[in-house]
């Protein structure tokens, strides 16, 4: 899957960074734990580009802002943190796509840094926790404007289209605190409507009730003294039309400012019916083709824990694009077999060129888990729909999976296996049969 794959809402109090907090960060430990969980979820989505919207960057009154400098540098040394410096590469391809899509939507978008850009604490505080989940992804910093909320939602929709245009996996981070007026000692003073605003917003996000966010009363918003609503609205626009699972991981406000951490995970189209074994094959191919990494599943399903031979088949527009497998297992479990054979199917099948990143959205997968092969004495013991076969002559072996389109007789199965192994039609052979459980 490409396009928007993950979204999240994060606070940005500098004291959340231990070097700045000096122990006070323990008073918002729920936020800390939630940010660490968010980093884990972000890593699982394998983003290639991370878009972050901050209220504290260079804000333009009547235009959205985008930092287009090639290299982005951030530090929190002015806050007393000397171990929080980070440099990030920008994504010029995404920038160009977003500029095109914003212009098409009539949304003004101007650069806030062409040659250099210093990342503000609205970026650096969240990334202190989330950088590990980025795995080297590019970073695109944005700022919002004072245009109406509806314009920010439209801008988010442009972000979604830009992500789809680039064909990359994109995560969107909405950095922003909620009300700054929760208690008498709050930074912006006290207003009882601050608590009301935070409650309404967190409930709307938890329920993924987008209209409820967009319809928040303007007077309530003003009295709340918030800084994150526009970031959140842009994020919601970027997720528009996608199947989203929203999870508010934490909310607290002991210092008079509301801090919400929420994960808005995008469910991939068609994967709700995809078996975990097939999903592992797909995730392996996408991860390896894009960045040379292989996933390591943290939790193994019962089927993954078994030990068996496995074949991974890849198709593109219904046509075979790769198929490699093992009938004798090489790994301790099926998960290891799938990962190894998925990489081989995508990159080492001698019949095809290696899969390219551009092809990934068009691929489909199936996984066949094999029973142990057993010898047969006669072709009468075979069935091309039920059994796969192995044809063996000396050290030469040809294997064919069962229930293949166009292979409707045992004789055809044997002939194909002979051709695969280079066994002549008149050479004596030993036949084996096996069954498979096919996952799609």
Give your account of this protein's structure.
With 440 residues, this protein is of the alpha/beta class. It is built from 13 helices and 19 strands. Strands 6-3-8-2-9-1-11-10 form an eight-stranded mixed β-sheet, with helices on both faces. It has a four-stranded antiparallel β-sheet with strand order 13-12-14-19, with helices on one face. The protein has a four-stranded antiparallel β-sheet with strand order 15-18-16-17, covered by helices on one side. A hairpin with a 2-residue loop joins strand 12 (310-316) and strand 13. The protein is elongated. The two termini are 16 Å apart. The model has no long low-confidence stretch (mean pLDDT 93).
Which tags fit this structure?
single chain, 440 residues, alpha/beta, eight-stranded mixed beta sheet, four-stranded antiparallel beta sheet, 13 helices, elongated
């Amino acid at each position: 899957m490409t396009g928007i794959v993950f979204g999240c809402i994060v606070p940005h109090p500098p004291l959340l960074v231990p070097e700045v907090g000096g122990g006070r960060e323990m008073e918002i430990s729920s936020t800390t734990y939630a940010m660490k969980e968010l980093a884990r979820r972000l890593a699982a989505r394998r983003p290639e580009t991370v878009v972050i919207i901050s209220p504290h960057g260079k804000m333009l009154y009547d235009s959205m802002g985008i930092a287009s400098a090639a290299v982005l540098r951030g530090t929190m040394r002015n806050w007393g943190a000397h171990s929080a410096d980070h440099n990030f590469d920008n994504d010029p391809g995404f920038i160009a796509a977003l500029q095109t899509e914003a212009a098409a939507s009539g949304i003004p978008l101007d650069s806030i840094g062409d040659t250099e850009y210093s990342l503000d604490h609205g970026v650096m505080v969240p990334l202190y926790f989330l950088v590990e989940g980025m795995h080297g992804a590019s970073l695109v910093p944005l700022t919002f404007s004072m245009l109406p909320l509806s314009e920010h939602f439209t801008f988010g929709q442009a972000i979604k289209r830009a992500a789809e245009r680039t064909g990359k996996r994109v995560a969107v981070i909405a950095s922003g605190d909620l009300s700054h007026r929760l208690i008498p000692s709050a930074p912006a003073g006290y207003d009882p409507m601050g608590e009301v605003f935070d409650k309404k917003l967190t409930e709307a996000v938890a329920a993924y009730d987008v209209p409820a966010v967009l319809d928040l009363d303007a007077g309530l918003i003003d009295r709340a003294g918030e800084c994150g609503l526009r970031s959140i609205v842009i994020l919601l626009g970027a997720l528009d039309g996608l199947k989203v699972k929203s999870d508010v991981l934490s909310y607290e406000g002991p210092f008079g400012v509301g801090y919400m951490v929420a994960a808005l995970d995008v469910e991939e189209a068609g994967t709700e019916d995809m078996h975990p074994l097939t999903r592992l094959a797909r995730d392996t191919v996408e991860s390896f083709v894009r960045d040379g990494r292989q996933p390591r599943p943290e939790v193994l399903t019962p089927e993954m824990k078994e030990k068996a031979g496995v074949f991974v088949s890849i198709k593109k527009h219904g046509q075979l694009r790769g198929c490699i497998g093992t009938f004798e297992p090489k790994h301790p479990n099926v998960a290891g077999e799938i990962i190894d054979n998925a990489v081989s199917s995508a990159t080492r099948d001698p019949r095809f060129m290696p899969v390219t990143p551009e092809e990934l959205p068009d691929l489909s997968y199936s996984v066949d888990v094999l029973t142990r092969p057993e010898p047969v004495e006669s072709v009468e013991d075979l069935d091309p729909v039920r059994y796969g076969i192995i044809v063996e002559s000396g050290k030469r072996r040809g294997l064919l999976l069962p229930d293949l389109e166009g292979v409707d007789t045992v004789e055809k199965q044997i002939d194909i296996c002979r051709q695969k192994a280079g066994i002549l039609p008149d050479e004596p052979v030993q036949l084996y049969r096996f069954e498979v459980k096919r996952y799609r």
